[in-house]
Amino acid sequence: MDIRVNVTGSQLRMRFGNRYGVELMQIGGVTVWNGSHGKRVTFDGKDGVELAVGEVTTSDVLDFTVQAGDTLRVLLYFPSGCPVPRSVSATFGTVHS
């Protein structure tokens, strides 16, 4: 999923939810990429996270400088055998520098 950044900052945090799911959602890994480098996103120090129906979680803070107008690509990995959600939404916040 590609995200257009509205603000400049030196860190970011992502929020993922399973608000409208009908079963457990398992995210095996998330990577954010800005076209020149990427970083793995963690959740309480772990690569992946499980979200119960209706649950929302926030990633750990990631040191990742962004400029207003940048496009970030967010890559999500769903483990084999786990149901792939019908839709994925995420909210991104930045720490202004």
Describe it.
- With 97 residues, this protein is mainly β.
- It contains no helices and ten strands.
- A hairpin with a 4-residue loop joins strand 4 (29-33) and strand 5.
- The radius of gyration is 13 Å and the shape is elongated.
Please give the alpha-carbon distance between the first and last residues: 25 Å
Number of strands: 10
User: Which structural class fits the helix and strand makeup?
Assistant: mainly beta
Spatial extent as radius of gyration: 13 Å
Continuous helix count = 0
Regions with pLDDT < 50 over 5+ consecutive residues?
A: none
- Biggest β-sheet: count, sense, barrel? 4 strands, antiparallel
Provide a compact summary of the structure.
The protein has 97 residues and is mainly β. It contains no helices and ten strands. It starts with a strand and ends with a strand.
